[in-house]
Amino acid sequence: MEFQVDSFILYLATERGLSTAYQLSVRQTLDKLLPWCEKKGHKEWRDLGTDELSAFLSSLRKSELDASSLRIAIVHLKIFFRFLQKRSHIEVDPAEPLLSPKAPAKLPETLNAQAVEQLLASIDPEKKLGRRDLAMLELFYASGLRLSELCGARLEYLDTEDHFLRITGKGNKTRLVPVGKKALTALEAYLTNERPTLVTKKTSSFIFLSIRGGSLSTDRVRQIVKERAKQAGISQNIYPHLLRHSFATHLLENGADLRVIQELLGHADIATTQIYTHVDQKRLKAVHKEFHPRG
Question: What is the pTM of this model?
Answer without folding.
Answer: 0.63
